Amino acid sequence: MYNPRVESLRNAIVRYLARRGVAQRAIARIMRIDRGTVQSVLRGKSGHGFGAVVVVRRCPRCGGLTTWPCRLCRMKDLRKDLRNENR
Fold first, then answer.
1. What is each CA distance from 83 to 57, 62, 72, in whole angstroms?
2. What is the pLDDT of residues 18-56, one digit of tens each?
3. Cβ neighbours for 5, distance < 8 A, ≥ 6 positions apart
4. What is the rounded CA–CA span in Å between residue 5 and residue 67?
5. Between vectors from CA 40 to CA 37 and to CA 42, what angle results, nearest 5°?
6. pTM of the model
7. pLDDT at 14
8. What angle is formed at CA 23 by the lines to CA 18 and CA 26, rounded to 5 degrees?
9. Which of 2, 3, 33, 41 has the most CB atoms less than 10 A away?
10. Backbone dihedral region for residue 44 (phi beyond 0: left; psi -120 to 50: alpha; all else: beta)
11. What totals of helices (H) and strands (E) does the chain contain, helices first?
């Protein structure tokens, strides 16, 4: 499952090691990830949606920790609308 916090931490560590002069193969071995993933991170193309910034925060309406806009509230609203249409 995708976790933006884990992925951003992984990317930060990969970039840190690269700045320290560690070879990409060594970074892949240390981090236990593919060399292609290391290359993508260093090119700035790694992440959810290839470079898209994913904002995760608490929804003020339901309190769920989710991407914005809140998918949970959106689905609840859609279900409510469908129920009202069927009546």
1. 29, 20, 17
2. 999 999 999 999 998 889 989 988 988 755 544 455 667
3. 56
4. 12
5. 110
6. 0.50
7. 92
8. 105
9. 41
10. left
11. 4, 2
